[in-house]
Specification:
3 domains, alpha+beta, Butyryl-CoA Dehydrogenase, subunit A, domain 2, Butyryl-Coa Dehydrogenase, subunit A, domain 1, Butyryl-CoA Dehydrogenase, subunit A, domain 3, four-stranded mixed sheet, 10 strands, short-chain fatty acyl-CoA dehydrogenase activity, 50% helix, Butyryl-CoA dehydrogenase, EC 1.3.8.1, single chain, globular, Acyl-CoA_DH_CS, flavin adenine dinucleotide binding, four-stranded antiparallel sheet
Length: 387
């Protein structure tokens, strides 16, 4: 069932988020990028106190029960100034907590959702492996039933918030069925015996968002931690489409931030005795930036509009994510060009936007994989990339 959008409530949330972003986080964004400092638990709890971490999660567990668009608006407002802060809202509202909220048991929802919503704990998703990235169904991590427990063995790669999160929703192979048929998802606490983490990755962007490998060596968890059993992979990835909308919104924010800075710069900066915006070539580039940003925004809005009790339409999500991811890369590149030499400095922050734009395009399914998904949904058939 589609949820009713309260435009005034959404606008008020976005205004608060924009104020917090500019006053509390923007002054530290460059410093956090240089130091690669992880977002502090204290600041995460502050976002929880504002109600930002549970906007689109059920009210009975402390959430706001609001439409997904409300959460996406807050993510955009924060991400224009500070992606590490926006990531906290992104992960809580569009990440694996949505899987728990939609498919988890009542016991799981009561145990895991309240601390996520308050900011006392975080839940990260663990899907990719060293040899299973875009080909997610090639994963080898196993969760074997042993009495009333599950025993996990394997490793995960490129896990955002890896080493920092308190809980992980781990996708694992639970029987010998081929491909996706044997895959399910289980909740694993970070402090379980046998859970260990690799060194934090030194990424081009995402510098305030930790990423690390996770290793599982005979990790025993109660069977009650099983969220989705084998044979329901399509449902799991249907919920993952919500995360892809969060991803697309992060890209949208990056593109909008680059556009906003460029719009101001070309009117203030003069060359040959007149503002840059007086040159037709600058006007053409600026127009292209607006076209691309607004196209991405409309595709995201369309895909998010139907999310309520039902999961989003996979085709609409892939169109939105692919468009937004590629828009952010192109628009930040154009912004750097229009800023000339200033665009290549750290002072103007455009190189930081450009680096982060590439990260969000890689996360959650690359544009190439989204194109394959688009054709698959369009034609109503799947394509076996292994043949």
């Amino acid at each position: 069932m589609q949820q009713v959008i309260d435009a005034d409530e959404q606008r008020a949330l976005e205004e608060v988020a924009a104020k917090v972003a500019k006053e509390r986080y923007a002054p530290y964004d460059e410093e956090w990028d240089r130091s690669r400092m992880a977002f502090s638990k204290q600041e995460r709890r502050y976002l929880g106190e504002l109600g930002f971490l549970g906007i689109a999660l059920p009210e009975q567990y402390g959430g706001g029960g609001a439409p997904l668009q409300h959460a996406l608006g807050v993510i955009e407002a924060l991400a224009k100034e500070c992606r590490p802060a926006a990531f906290q809202v992104f992960e809580a509202n569009t990440g694996p907590a949505q899987v728990v909220a939609r498919f988890g048991t009542e016991q799981q929802r009561e145990r895991f959702l309240p601390p996520i919503i308050s900011g006392d704990a975080t839940l990260a998703v663990a899907i990719s492996e060293p040899d299973a990235g875009s080909a997610a169904t090639d994963m080898k991590t196993k969760a074997t039933v042993s009495g009333d427990s599950l025993v996990l063995n394997g490793s995960k790669r490129w896990i955002s918030n890896g080493g920092e999160a308190d809980y992980y929703l781990v996708y694992a192979r639970m029987n010998d069925e081929p491909g996706s048929k044997g895959i399910g998802a289980v909740l694993v606490e970070a402090d379980r015996d046998g859970v260990s983490f690799g060194q934090r990755e030194k990424l081009m962007g995402f510098r305030g968002i930790p990423s690390a490998d996770i290793l599982f060596d005979d990790v025993v968890v109660p069977a009650d931690n099983l969220v989705v059993g084998p044979g329901r992979f399509r449902e799991l990835f249907g919920a993952f489409s919500i995360e892809r909308l969060g991803n697309a919104t992060m890209s949208l924010a990056i593109g909008q931030a680059a556009l906003d800075r460029t719009k101001h710069y070309v009117q203030e900066r003069e060359q040959f005795g007149k503002p840059l915006v007086e040159f037709q070539s600058v006007q053409m580039n600026l127009a292209d930036m607006v076209l691309q940003v607004e196209a991405a925004r409309l595709l995201i809005r369309r895909a998010a509009a139907n999310v309520g009790d039902e999961l989003p339409d996979s085709l609409e999500v892939s169109l939105a994510k692919c468009t937004a991811n590629e828009m952010a890369k192109r628009v930040t590149d154009l912004a750097m060009q229009l800023h000339g030499g200033n665009g290549y400095t750290e002072e103007y922050g455009l190189e930081r936007l450009h680096r982060d734009a590439h990260g969000w395009a890689l996360a959650g399914g690359t544009p190439s994989m989204q194109r394959i998904r688009i054709v698959s949904e369009l034609l109503g058939r799947s394509f076996d990339q292994r043949r």
